[in-house]
UniProtKB/TrEMBL annotation:
Signal peptide: none annotated. The chain crosses the membrane at residues 30-47, 53-73, 104-125, 137-160, 172-190, 223-241. Residues 11-202 form the ABC-2 type transporter transmembrane domain. This is ABC-2 type transporter transmembrane domain-containing protein. Keywords: Membrane, Transmembrane, Transmembrane helix.
Length: 249
């Protein structure tokens, strides 16, 4: 009796279907992740005239990206690893890389959905519109920025095995990014912290998102922020992948 091995494309489609189904079953957490940036947009309406539409929209998207990478991706990987999902998939006739690629593709789809939600929320709540090129460029910068926070989630789940520890660490890092990022960017914590915030993962992401929304305001610092984003992503991804264990044993 001959056993047929599915092609890589077929295996990837099956993995994607399973991961999308799992994402849908966890739709409550997905909806919360998408709603938080929209709530930020609504509450920051008085700040649009002071800081500009690009600044507010980019901040909202950044907050959503932090949630996807830290609260969504890392926790889902930790839960599935504890349940032995990855151990079972490793003995299946599928390439190992396709297992993680499927997960990442689902998260990238979440990022695109997040950007759309922020665009719609910005239009209806703050009456914000940007150019067509701004919408397109922001989608690309959001994907690059999302990769950074996914790599941060990867390094957390790579360095830590226990899912409860992963969850607690993700929440702590999320709080630090949001609290220090939001207050630091406004200079509420001092000029030194403001400078550090601008070149932290939070600051560089917000910078390139704002630059993408208004290309005429793309500066040398924005280009440096883009390079920093790519650099952060590579470093965190390499460390996270090298230390990742397929099981908690």
């Amino acid at each position: 009796m001959q056993t047929s091995i599915p092609s890589t494309a077929t295996a990837l489609k099956s993995l994607l279907r399973a991961d999308l189904t799992t994402q849908w079953r966890n739709r409550r957490s997905m909806i919360l992740i998408l709603l938080v940036p929209v709530i930020i947009l609504y509450s920051w309406r008085p700040l649009v005239d002071k800081f500009g539409a690009a600044y507010i929209l980019s901040s909202a998207i950044t907050i959503g990206l932090v949630a996807i990478g830290l609260m969504g991706y890392s926790n889902s990987i930790a839960r599935d690893r504890e349940k032995g999902v990855f151990q079972r998939l490793r003995v299946a006739p599928v390439p190992r890389w396709s297992i993680m690629v499927s997960r990442l593709l689902v998260q990238l789809a979440m990022i695109l959905l997040l950007v759309v939600f922020v665009y719609v929320g910005g239009y209806y709540f703050d009456h914000v519109t940007i150019s067509a090129s701004g919408y397109v460029v922001t989608l690309f910068t959001a994907l690059i920025s999302g990769a950074l926070y996914l790599s941060i989630g990867q390094i957390i789940v790579g360095m830590l095995k226990n899912p409860e520890t992963v969850n607690a660490t993700s929440r702590m890092v999320y709080f630090i990014f949001i609290f220090v990022g939001m207050l630091g960017q406004f200079g509420q914590l001092g000029e030194q912290v403001k400078t550090i915030t601008e070149w932290s993962p939070y600051g560089v992401v917000r910078n390139i998102l704002a630059g993408g929304m208004d290309i005429s305001h793309w500066t040398h610092d924005t280009t440096l922020a883009l390079l920093a984003t790519i650099g952060y992503t590579i470093v965190f991804a390499v460390i996270g992948i090298r230390n990742f264990k397929w099981s908690i044993k």
